[in-house]
Protein backbone atom coordinates (compact mmCIF):
# COMPACT_ATOMS: atom_id res chain seq x y z
CA UNK A 1 0.00 0.00 0.00
CA UNK A 2 1.22 3.56 -0.68
CA UNK A 3 2.48 5.31 2.42
CA UNK A 4 0.13 8.30 2.05
CA UNK A 5 -2.90 6.02 1.62
CA UNK A 6 -1.87 4.05 4.69
CA UNK A 7 -1.54 7.20 6.82
CA UNK A 8 -4.94 8.49 5.68
CA UNK A 9 -6.44 5.07 6.47
CA UNK A 10 -4.95 5.26 9.97
CA UNK A 11 -6.68 8.57 10.60
CA UNK A 12 -3.53 10.74 10.56
CA UNK A 13 -5.15 13.24 8.21
CA UNK A 14 -6.60 13.82 4.78
CA UNK A 15 -4.50 13.05 1.72
CA UNK A 16 -3.40 16.71 1.42
CA UNK A 17 -2.59 16.95 5.14
CA UNK A 18 -0.66 13.70 5.02
CA UNK A 19 1.46 14.97 2.09
CA UNK A 20 2.43 18.04 4.15
CA UNK A 21 3.15 15.89 7.23
CA UNK A 22 5.41 13.65 5.15
CA UNK A 23 7.29 16.63 3.67
CA UNK A 24 7.94 17.96 7.17
CA UNK A 25 9.82 14.74 8.03
CA UNK A 26 7.57 13.61 10.89
CA UNK A 27 7.01 10.10 9.56
CA UNK A 28 9.46 7.22 9.84
CA UNK A 29 9.39 3.80 8.18
CA UNK A 30 11.46 1.28 10.09
CA UNK A 31 13.12 4.12 12.05
CA UNK A 32 14.15 6.05 8.91
CA UNK A 33 12.51 9.34 7.96
CA UNK A 34 10.41 8.91 4.83
CA UNK A 35 9.18 11.97 2.93
CA UNK A 36 7.76 10.33 -0.17
CA UNK A 37 4.02 9.82 -0.35
CA UNK A 38 4.41 7.35 -3.19
CA UNK A 39 6.66 4.84 -1.48
CA UNK A 40 5.02 1.44 -0.92
CA UNK A 41 4.99 -0.09 2.52
CA UNK A 42 3.93 -3.42 3.96
CA UNK A 43 1.27 -2.45 6.51
CA UNK A 44 1.80 -5.64 8.49
CA UNK A 45 5.62 -5.96 8.56
CA UNK A 46 6.90 -2.37 8.35
CA UNK A 47 7.02 -0.18 11.44
CA UNK A 48 5.49 3.18 10.67
CA UNK A 49 5.66 6.01 13.21
CA UNK A 50 4.26 9.54 13.24
CA UNK A 51 6.02 11.96 15.56
CA UNK A 52 7.69 8.98 17.23
CA UNK A 53 4.40 7.16 17.96
CA UNK A 54 3.64 3.86 16.19
CA UNK A 55 0.81 4.10 13.67
CA UNK A 56 -1.43 1.08 13.46
CA UNK A 57 -3.59 0.08 10.54
CA UNK A 58 -7.28 -0.18 11.32
CA UNK A 59 -9.15 -2.62 9.16
CA UNK A 60 -12.57 -1.60 10.41
CA UNK A 61 -13.89 1.75 11.60
CA UNK A 62 -17.20 2.55 13.31
CA UNK A 63 -18.92 5.92 13.49
CA UNK A 64 -22.01 6.86 15.44
CA UNK A 65 -23.85 9.59 13.52
CA UNK A 66 -26.70 11.75 14.74
CA UNK A 67 -28.36 11.86 11.33
CA UNK A 68 -30.12 15.11 10.51
CA UNK A 69 -33.30 15.34 8.48
CA UNK A 70 -32.78 16.04 4.78
CA UNK A 71 -29.91 13.64 4.11
CA UNK A 72 -30.22 10.18 2.61
CA UNK A 73 -28.91 7.03 4.33
CA UNK A 74 -27.05 5.88 1.25
CA UNK A 75 -23.55 6.15 -0.12
CA UNK A 76 -24.60 8.04 -3.25
CA UNK A 77 -27.63 9.81 -4.60
CA UNK A 78 -28.17 11.92 -7.70
CA UNK A 79 -30.47 14.47 -6.01
CA UNK A 80 -29.81 14.66 -2.27
CA UNK A 81 -26.89 14.93 0.09
CA UNK A 82 -26.02 11.58 1.63
CA UNK A 83 -24.78 10.75 5.12
CA UNK A 84 -21.29 10.30 3.62
CA UNK A 85 -21.26 14.01 2.74
CA UNK A 86 -21.29 14.70 6.50
CA UNK A 87 -18.05 12.77 7.09
CA UNK A 88 -14.44 13.94 6.86
CA UNK A 89 -11.95 12.64 4.30
CA UNK A 90 -10.51 10.04 6.70
CA UNK A 91 -13.90 8.45 7.33
CA UNK A 92 -14.79 8.52 3.65
CA UNK A 93 -11.45 7.03 2.68
CA UNK A 94 -12.37 3.96 4.78
CA UNK A 95 -15.41 3.44 2.54
CA UNK A 96 -17.95 3.27 5.31
CA UNK A 97 -21.65 2.75 4.63
CA UNK A 98 -24.76 3.08 6.78
CA UNK A 99 -25.96 0.00 8.67
CA UNK A 100 -29.58 0.04 7.57
CA UNK A 101 -31.66 2.98 6.52
CA UNK A 102 -33.51 5.86 8.04
CA UNK A 103 -35.97 7.83 5.91
CA UNK A 104 -34.81 11.20 4.63
CA UNK A 105 -37.02 12.97 7.21
CA UNK A 106 -36.03 10.69 10.12
CA UNK A 107 -33.20 11.80 12.40
CA UNK A 108 -31.11 10.16 15.09
CA UNK A 109 -28.80 7.20 15.52
CA UNK A 110 -27.13 5.74 12.47
CA UNK A 111 -24.09 3.47 12.59
CA UNK A 112 -21.60 3.79 9.75
CA UNK A 113 -18.91 1.18 9.24
CA UNK A 114 -16.87 -0.65 6.62
CA UNK A 115 -17.43 -3.94 8.47
CA UNK A 116 -19.78 -5.80 6.14
CA UNK A 117 -20.07 -8.87 8.37
CA UNK A 118 -21.22 -6.77 11.31
CA UNK A 119 -23.75 -4.90 9.16
CA UNK A 120 -25.06 -8.21 7.86
CA UNK A 121 -25.56 -9.53 11.40
CA UNK A 122 -27.16 -6.35 12.70
CA UNK A 123 -29.60 -6.23 9.80
CA UNK A 124 -30.39 -9.93 9.63
CA UNK A 125 -34.12 -10.48 10.34
CA UNK A 126 -33.10 -13.61 12.24
CA UNK A 127 -31.17 -11.56 14.78
CA UNK A 128 -34.22 -9.47 15.84
CA UNK A 129 -32.08 -6.44 16.66
CA UNK A 130 -34.26 -4.04 18.61
CA UNK A 131 -34.64 -0.44 17.48
CA UNK A 132 -36.13 2.27 19.68
CA UNK A 133 -37.82 5.31 18.16
CA UNK A 134 -39.31 8.44 19.64
CA UNK A 135 -42.15 9.80 17.57
CA UNK A 136 -44.43 12.80 17.51
CA UNK A 137 -47.80 11.87 16.16
CA UNK A 138 -50.72 13.90 14.84
CA UNK A 139 -53.69 12.35 16.64
CA UNK A 140 -54.22 10.81 20.05
CA UNK A 141 -52.61 7.40 20.48
CA UNK A 142 -54.49 5.12 22.82
CA UNK A 143 -54.09 1.96 24.90
CA UNK A 144 -56.03 0.22 22.16
CA UNK A 145 -53.26 1.19 19.72
CA UNK A 146 -50.70 -0.21 22.20
CA UNK A 147 -52.61 -3.51 22.24
CA UNK A 148 -52.65 -3.59 18.45
CA UNK A 149 -48.88 -3.02 18.39
CA UNK A 150 -48.42 -5.82 20.94
CA UNK A 151 -50.52 -8.23 18.88
CA UNK A 152 -48.74 -7.46 15.61
CA UNK A 153 -50.19 -4.86 13.27
CA UNK A 154 -51.43 -6.08 9.93
CA UNK A 155 -50.22 -3.99 7.02
CA UNK A 156 -51.26 -4.46 3.39
CA UNK A 157 -48.26 -6.59 2.45
CA UNK A 158 -47.19 -8.15 5.77
CA UNK A 159 -48.03 -8.61 9.42
CA UNK A 160 -45.62 -6.90 11.79
CA UNK A 161 -44.08 -8.80 14.65
CA UNK A 162 -45.36 -7.80 18.09
CA UNK A 163 -43.97 -4.37 18.94
CA UNK A 164 -44.04 -2.08 21.91
CA UNK A 165 -45.87 1.26 21.88
CA UNK A 166 -45.45 3.42 24.97
CA UNK A 167 -47.53 6.57 25.18
CA UNK A 168 -45.35 9.26 26.72
CA UNK A 169 -47.68 12.26 26.48
CA UNK A 170 -50.92 13.24 24.81
CA UNK A 171 -52.08 16.78 24.29
CA UNK A 172 -55.84 17.00 23.76
CA UNK A 173 -55.73 20.69 22.88
CA UNK A 174 -53.32 20.20 19.94
CA UNK A 175 -54.41 16.59 19.25
CA UNK A 176 -50.76 15.50 19.30
CA UNK A 177 -49.07 12.53 21.00
CA UNK A 178 -45.49 11.70 21.93
CA UNK A 179 -44.70 8.00 21.90
CA UNK A 180 -41.83 5.52 22.08
CA UNK A 181 -41.90 2.58 19.71
CA UNK A 182 -39.72 -0.50 19.98
CA UNK A 183 -39.51 -2.82 16.99
CA UNK A 184 -37.25 -5.73 16.13
CA UNK A 185 -37.78 -5.49 12.38
CA UNK A 186 -36.77 -2.89 9.84
CA UNK A 187 -39.19 -2.87 6.95
CA UNK A 188 -39.57 0.17 4.69
CA UNK A 189 -41.34 3.05 6.51
CA UNK A 190 -42.34 0.53 9.16
CA UNK A 191 -42.95 2.85 12.11
CA UNK A 192 -44.84 5.37 10.01
CA UNK A 193 -46.95 2.62 8.50
CA UNK A 194 -47.74 1.05 11.88
CA UNK A 195 -48.89 4.40 13.22
CA UNK A 196 -50.86 5.06 10.01
CA UNK A 197 -52.57 1.69 10.49
CA UNK A 198 -53.93 3.13 13.75
CA UNK A 199 -55.33 6.11 11.81
CA UNK A 200 -52.68 8.63 12.92
CA UNK A 201 -49.63 10.25 11.34
CA UNK A 202 -45.99 10.42 12.43
CA UNK A 203 -44.86 14.04 12.18
CA UNK A 204 -41.37 13.57 13.64
CA UNK A 205 -39.31 10.41 14.00
CA UNK A 206 -36.04 9.95 15.82
CA UNK A 207 -34.13 6.71 16.35
CA UNK A 208 -32.51 6.64 19.78
CA UNK A 209 -31.25 3.07 20.00
CA UNK A 210 -30.20 0.22 17.73
CA UNK A 211 -29.30 -3.02 19.48
CA UNK A 212 -26.74 -2.15 22.15
CA UNK A 213 -25.95 1.30 20.67
CA UNK A 214 -27.59 4.36 22.19
CA UNK A 215 -27.76 7.83 20.63
CA UNK A 216 -25.17 9.99 22.36
CA UNK A 217 -26.97 13.03 23.76
CA UNK A 218 -23.74 15.02 23.49
CA UNK A 219 -23.73 14.55 19.74
CA UNK A 220 -25.27 17.51 17.92
CA UNK A 221 -27.51 16.80 14.96
CA UNK A 222 -25.23 16.17 11.96
CA UNK A 223 -22.22 15.32 14.15
CA UNK A 224 -20.56 11.95 14.47
CA UNK A 225 -17.85 10.28 16.48
CA UNK A 226 -16.00 7.01 16.57
CA UNK A 227 -17.48 4.27 18.73
CA UNK A 228 -15.68 4.07 22.05
CA UNK A 229 -14.10 0.94 23.53
CA UNK A 230 -17.20 0.16 25.62
CA UNK A 231 -19.52 0.34 22.60
CA UNK A 232 -17.18 -1.90 20.61
CA UNK A 233 -17.26 -4.42 23.44
CA UNK A 234 -21.06 -4.39 23.27
CA UNK A 235 -20.93 -5.20 19.55
CA UNK A 236 -19.08 -8.43 20.36
CA UNK A 237 -22.53 -10.05 20.87
CA UNK A 238 -22.79 -10.24 17.07
CA UNK A 239 -19.92 -12.72 17.00
CA UNK A 240 -17.97 -11.26 14.07
CA UNK A 241 -14.43 -9.91 13.80
CA UNK A 242 -14.46 -6.26 14.89
N1 LIG B 1 -39.58 3.51 10.40
C1 LIG B 1 -39.93 4.49 9.54
O1 LIG B 1 -41.08 4.63 9.19
N2 LIG B 1 -38.97 5.32 9.11
C2 LIG B 1 -37.67 5.23 9.50
O2 LIG B 1 -36.85 6.02 9.07
C3 LIG B 1 -37.33 4.21 10.40
C4 LIG B 1 -38.31 3.36 10.83
From TrEMBL:
Any Pfam family matching the protein:
S4
Residues annotated as domain RNA-binding S4: 1-66
| The keyword Isomerase appears for this protein | yes
Look up keyword Cytoplasm and say if it applies: no
**GO MF terms, alphabetically ordered:** RNA binding; rRNA pseudouridine synthase activity
The terms describing its cellular component in GO are: cytosol
Q: State the InterPro entries in the record.
A: PsdUridine_s_RsuA/RluB/E/F_cat, PsdUridine_synth_cat_dom_sf, PsdUridine_synth_RsuA/RluA, PsdUridine_synth_RsuA/RluB/E/F, PsdUridine_synth_RsuA/RluB_CS, RsuA_PseudoU_synthase, S4_RNA-bd, S4_RNA-bd_sf
- EC code: 5.4.99.-
Q: Provide the alphabetized UniProt keywords.
A: Isomerase, RNA-binding
An example GO biological process term is: enzyme-directed rRNA pseudouridine synthesis
What NCBIfam families does the record point to? pseudouridine synthase
Family (UniProt): Belongs to the pseudouridine synthase RsuA family.
PANTHER family in the record: PSEUDOURIDINE SYNTHASE, PSEUDOURIDINE SYNTHASE FAMILY PROTEIN-RELATED
Record-given protein name: Pseudouridine synthase
